[in-house]
Automatic annotation (TrEMBL):
It comes from the Bacteria. This is Uncharacterized protein. The keyword Membrane applies. Keywords: Membrane, Transmembrane, Transmembrane helix. The keyword Membrane applies. The chain crosses the membrane at residues 26-45, 52-68, 80-100, 185-209, 229-250.
Amino acid sequence: MTWLAILWLGIGVACLVRESWGGRRWLASAGVGIACQLVLAALALDFDGPSVIVVIVCAALVVAYEWWHHAPPTTSRDALIGLGLIGFPTAMVLTLSGVAPEASGLISGWLRHLPFLPAGTKSAGHVLALGAAFILNLAAGNTIVRDVLVASGVSPAAQGPTGTPPVLTQPRLRGGRVLGPMERVLILGFGAGGNLAAAALVIAAKGLVRFPELSATSRSENGPRIDEVTEYFLIGSFASLLLALGCVAVTT
């Protein structure tokens, strides 16, 4: 799980910096993400051969991810490649987790002396992965959801095969870039604490709160139809929820 934490931490921090500084500074945001990866690796790993290779590959993936996302994707192909740049490495690291070394060094000793740990946490590596998952679900989570929306063709930023935008050209539902991370962090926190019922309440509450806005948007003059707005909302919401729940499943 320590390798997974290094991968997620680098991408998550880089995305946070990119959103703060702007996409044109993608190389700087990638540098900050790589620096965080190196610090975590130095504190949690003994630098044997496999770990050195993994850290180098994870750093290269941060650069590739930031370069690819320095401008928002507008085609399904671009969005799918963006999803692959985090989905495929995550799957590979999870596949190799059986041979990955456990967290050691200074950070392992510090974690063992913490007076609290999430319920169901198995090891120091799982704690690191959970912390990295929280960071990943912030700005990087928004990037992942945006890629899903563009790949499915329902995003206002998406273009069809001929370069023409879809029917849904109205601005996205307000507050999504703030509410999405808050929702994912809540679900991740409840899931890590073993309280999935509370996570289900968060999901249900979001639907109830958003329903009036969905109806109002569809009734506006020259606005999109209710089915278009609903499709946009459901795909974005399910992508966001699956990301948070997937992190819960992996880290607890």
